Amino acid sequence: xxxxxxxxxxxxxxxxxxxxxxxxxxxxxxxxxxxxxxxxxxxxxxxxxxxxxxxxxxxxxxxxxxxxxxxxxxxxxxxxxxxxxxxxxxxxxxxxxxxxxxxxxxxxxxxxxxxxxxxxxxxxxxxxxxxxxxxxxxxxxxxxxxxxxxxxxxxxxxxxxxxxxxxxxxxxxxxxxxxxxxxxxxxxxxxxxxxxxxxxxxxxxxxxxxxxxxxxxxxxxxxxxxxxxxxxxxxxxxxxxxxxxxxxxxxxxxxxxxxxxxxxxxxxxxxxxxxxxxxxxxxxxxxxxxxxxxxxxxxxxxxxxxxxxxxxxxxxxxxxxxxxxxxxxxxxxxxxxxxxxxxxxxxxxxxxxxxxxxxxxxxxxxxxxxxxxxxxxxxxxxxxxxxxxxxxxxxxxxxxxxxxxxxxxxxxxxxxxxxxxxxxxxxxxxxxxxxxxxxxxxxxxxxxxxxxxxxxxxxxxxxxxxxxxxxxxxxxxxxxxxxxxxxxxxxxxxxxxxxxxxxx
Length: 504
Ligand SMILES: NC(=O)C1=CN([C@@H]2O[C@H](COP(=O)(O)OP(=O)(O)OC[C@H]3O[C@@H](n4cnc5c(N)ncnc54)[C@H](OP(=O)(O)O)[C@@H]3O)[C@@H](O)[C@H]2O)C=CC1
Ligand SMILES: O=C1O[C@H](COP(=O)(O)O)[C@@H](O)[C@H](O)[C@H]1O
Fold this sequence. Notes:
single chain; 504 residues; alpha/beta; Rossmann fold; Dihydrodipicolinate Reductase, domain 2; 9-stranded mixed sheet; 6-stranded parallel sheet; 35% helix; binds NADPH dihydro-nicotinamide-adenine-dinucleotide phosphate; binds ligand LXAUTJHC; NAD(P)-bd_dom_sf; carbohydrate metabolism; NADP binding
């Protein structure tokens, strides 16, 4: 069984970044969009920051015909925007290799087996391999089966780990089947289910804010919190990903993973330690406490929408049904808002409002903690609407947080005004935070699974959404919203009192 590396925890004392163990990364789907836009830049940045071992190489695998030199040329195009130092670029290109082949052809894996052995010897990686599945999801189980057939899953005194991209299945059944297939060849400690939101600096800071400060934890419960609102909005449409999105829809694309993970971090109990097992146990406990949806409560608690053509920044953008490769009568949702309850002592009666959508007014991810009214307002005769205190965690952009409180406006008359205390990362830390993929790839190389989704958490997330997926398959309850707005007006019906917190 793989020994979990605990080095990451000691970082809090030294703040020194931990270097990856000797290893290789073998990327399946190396000719694709994710590899070019995220993975190669992230690996290069780690290399440039000297966080990769000297005993390290990258092997790209895909069907596209390319040789090492072609893949190096492609890589050079990607990284030359990130660095002007030719020496660093050339050193990096030397450790890049490529192999083409068909994912379901055993010959590809026999060739890979030989090539990996050769490169492992050359780079003295101790046979440590991290396989990254950046392929369409239906290919994942084929790859793991074939890797198993040639023994590339087999760890002896080394490690063989797999990072799996989302979506992890498309419903409970397919997710369970994929998991079963993975577990035929791998132990859970070898499997890294990635959710890139967990690698975002500000998302990781939610735990620090909550559990490294005494002032927040005592008020982080039903006694003081009125409601919590989590918004992940995007101004872009679906781009070139219609093939995937048409079948997935926003509930699977964003709620099953990122939204539920954000909810979990905001609401979970303090873990006993930062050990991966402690943190992940608390997350699972929380997911299990979310009140289940059923045919009776779905319509009251969820709203789905689809964007229609309108203007964003003076430019007319097409509606979802006019996007390339989208059916003219598509009922795929591009927006979801939901009201969630957590049935445990801490969160009794506190609604969690979650919303996410494409083609909204702007790209923004934020968590708004809205506190209760004061129990008795001595100011209420003058100020009927005393604004509730709120704490806003800005995940992106403008990473940081703001506390909104009431304060006296200067002057002889007693007037109150809302005052915001803003903290922005960029003003405080003279440091460009690493991209999510950088952090997560480094963690996988180190062997830290804390920020990856465990099998049981994945299963519970799908279980929670399954009734919604099934109901929406049968019924047409789609609301339309103009691109460039904050989504369908119907979402306000989720609120008995109040409304969405204004997005600033
Ligand atoms: N792109 C993104 O921003 C994000 C992607 N993801 C996930 O990452 C994974 C990869 O995404 P992305 O790079 O965008 O995907 P691509 O569509 O670019 O596919 C990746 C590679 O897989 C191969 N491929 C594509 N279609 C097939 C097919 N039908 N059969 C076999 N191989 C195929 C192609 O390589 P070749 O033809 O050379 O074999 C392609 O270069 C997916 O699981 C996706 O859901 C997750 C979050 C964000
Ligand atoms: O996983 C996904 O995330 C992106 C949004 O990620 P962000 O880091 O840019 O906020 C989303 O566009 C995509 O549809 C989804 O698959």
